[in-house]
Amino acid sequence: MVPFSYTSVADPQAAVRRTSEGHGVEFIAGGTDMLQLLQEGVRAPLELVDINGIGFDDVSVAVDGVRIGAMARLADVADHPVIRERFPVVAEALHESASPQVRNMATVGGNLLQRTRCLYFRDVATPCNKRVPGSGCPAIEGQNRINAVLGGSPDCIAAYPGDLAVALIAADAELMVVGPKGERTVLVEKLHRQPGSTPHVEAVLEPGDLITAIWIPIAAGGRLSHYLRVRDRATFEWALASAAVSLGFEGTRVLEARVAAGGVGTTPWRLRAVEELLVGRDLDRALAHEAGERAADGARGYGGNDFKIPLLKKTVTRALMRVGGISPGEPA
Amino acid sequence: MLEVDKDRARHAVQPQHAFLVTLKVNGEEHRLNVDARTTLLDALRDRLHLTGTKKGCGLGQCGACTIIVDGRRVVSCLTLAVMNQGKEITTIEGLANGALHPVQQAFIEHDAFQCGYCTPGQIMSAVGLIQEGRTRSDDEIRENMSGNLCRCGAYTNIVDAIKDAIAHGLDPREAMTQAVEAIAQDAGREA
Ligand SMILES: Cc1cc2nc3c(=O)[nH]c(=O)nc-3n(C[C@H](O)[C@H](O)[C@H](O)COP(=O)(O)OP(=O)(O)OC[C@H]3O[C@@H](n4cnc5c(N)ncnc54)[C@H](O)[C@@H]3O)c2cc1C
Ligand code: SF4
Ligand code: FES
C-alpha cells in the first residue's frame, strides 16, 4: 500500500469540507471495498476520511417512506422488519450479498459505490482504462466472462457488480447527498454513469459529495417485489445476472412495473422495454416469457460473456413468475 | 502511474500518517504506534503477537481472520487498526476461560478441522452465528457460515459441532455473554 494519511470526522459538514479540498482525499466507511483496492494497489488515496462517526446509521420509518442512513450496515438493513415486510426486493438483495462478516461491516452508502470486479481493473499488472485512463481495455478481447453485455463502450465493458442499487431502482429510491454546494437528491437510477470515453468517472458525484441517506417512497411498498440472482456458487458471490422486479396489480393485471437487472450492465440497468410491455396486461406464464425476451434488448456479447444474454432473459422471466405467483414447473 | 499520484505534490491538508492508538483486545488495553495503513489483522498478529487470528487472503474472501468487534463478527483484514480504537475486540485467544469455550470443545469432539488453519476464524464466526440465532436448520447454519472457507472440506463436521455446542447448554443468546464474562474474569485475574 502507498502511504496515506487518515482523519476521522464527527459530522457530514466536516466530511464534505475535508474531501472537497482536493483530489485524492476519499471517504472510508465500512472499508470493505476500499481495503481490497488498497491491498491490491488499485487505489492510492492521499488521505482517508473516516465517516463512521457522522451518525446516519439507522433506518427510520415515516408515513410517506423509509429513510435508510448511508452508514447503516447491510446486515441491519436486511433484518429490519419494515424493509423485510414492505420492500422484500431490498431485503432479498442484501440478505445473501457478500458474507455475514462483510455484511456486518459494509455500509449501504459504500455498497452503491463499490468498484467493478473486472479482472483487469483489479490487477495492476495489466492495462485498464478505468484504472489508468488511456491505457487500453484488455477485457474486450480477453477474459470477459463477468463483464457487461449492456452499456459497454469501445473503452470499457466493466459490469457494475452490486446488488443493492438494482433493487433500489425497482423501489424508486433516491439518495440524499450533501456536498460543497449544499444538499440535493439524486435518483439511484441516475447515480451511475455509462463508461463512454471516460470509464474512470463512474458516478454523478463530485469531490466532497457525501451520501447521507437512501429514501424509499412508501408507494413502492404497496407493490409486490422480488430479487433473484444467479451466480457461480450458491452463495458468497456476486451475481452473473440478477433481476429486481416490483409490480403493482389489480387482480392479475399489472398496473405498475419496475424491472431492473444487475451483473449484466455497465451500471445497474433499468429495463424500461420490459416494464412497458407488462403494464396493462395480465401476468401469466406467456407474458413472463414474452417480457423476459425483451430484457436483453440492445445487448452485445464479447465472447466469454455471451451466455449472459440468455441468462438475463431467463432470470427476468423467472423473477416475474415468482412475483406473479406462477410456479416455474407447471407446463404452459 | 495512478491519476492521483500527480496530486500528491500539491496536497493541501496536513497529513497524519502515524498514530498512537489504544486497542482493547480480550479485555486488555494496548497502546501502540501504528501507521495509518496497518490493518487490524496485522496489528493483532504482528504487533500484539496474537497469532491465533490467521491471515488467508487479506481480501475478505476466506474468513480466516474473523474476530468479534463490539459483539459482531467481522473480518479483521478489511479494517484499519486506527478505525477500531475504543472498541471491544475479541480474538480466539480471548474465548477460553480456564476451560475451553463450548464451541472450541465441540470442534474438538466433532473433529471439525484437518489442518486447522481456518479453525480460529471458523470458531469465532460460529460464536457470532450462534449469538445471531441463525441456527434454525442445517441449511441456515451453512448459509451463515459461508464467509468461512475450509480447504480441507471439514464443513460437515463444522455444522455438527455448531449444532452440538447449541444442544449442550449453550443458549444462543448466552454465547456472547459467556465469552465476554470469560474475558472480564481473565482481565481480573491478571490485574
Ligand atoms: C468478499 C466480498 C464479497 C462481496 N460480495 C458482494 C455481493 O455479493 N453483492 C454486493 O452487492 N456486494 C458485495 N460485496 C461488496 C460489498 O458489499 C461492498 O464492498 C460494501 O458494501 C462497500 O461498503 P463499505 O461501507 O465497506 O464501503 P467502503 O469500502 O468504505 O467505500 C467504498 C467506496 O464508497 C465511498 N463511500 C463510502 N461511503 C460513502 C458515502 N456515504 N458517501 C459517498 N461516498 C462514500 C468510498 O469513498 C469508497 O470509494 C462484497 C465484498 C467483499 C469484500
Ligand atoms: S472493461 Fe473497463 S475495467 Fe475492465 S479492463 Fe476494460 S477498461 Fe478496465
Ligand atoms: S484474511 Fe481476512 S478474509 Fe481472508
Could you provide a short overview of the structure?
Chain A is built from 13 helices and twelve strands. By secondary structure, chain A is an alpha+beta fold. Among the domains of chain A are: 119 residues, 2-Layer Sandwich (Uridine Diphospho-n-acetylenolpyruvylglucosamine Reductase, domain 3); 105 residues, CO dehydrogenase flavoprotein, C-terminal domain (Enolase-like, domain 1), CATH 3.30.390.
Q: Biggest β-sheet of chain B: count, sense, barrel?
A: 5 strands, mixed
**What's the gyration radius of chain B in Å?**
18 Å
CATH class of the domain at 55-113 and 160-219 in chain A: Alpha Beta
The N- and C-terminal alpha carbons of chain B lie at a distance of 52 Å
CATH topology of the largest domain in chain B: DNA polymerase, domain 1
Detail the poorly predicted runs of chain A: none
What's the overall geometry of chain B?
globular
Question: What is the spatial order of strands in the main beta sheet of chain B?
Answer: 2-1-5-3-4
Number of strands of chain B: 5
CATH evolutionary superfamily of the largest domain in chain B: [2Fe-2S]-binding domain
Q: What's the total helix number of chain B?
A: 7
- List ligands, each type once: flavin-adenine dinucleotide, iron/sulfur cluster, FE2/S2 (inorganic) cluster
* Strands side by side in the biggest sheet of chain A: 4-5-8-6-7
- In angstroms, what is the radius of gyration of chain A? 20 Å
Major sheet of chain A = 5 strands, antiparallel
- The low-pLDDT segments of chain B are 1-6
Number of helical segments with 4 or more residues of chain A: 13
Biggest interface, chains and residue tallies:
A-B, 46 and 45 residues
Protein name (chain A): Xanthine dehydrogenase family protein subunit M
GO molecular function (chain A): FAD binding; oxidoreductase activity
Organism (chain A): Salinarimonas soli
Domain FAD-binding PCMH-type (chain A): 1-221
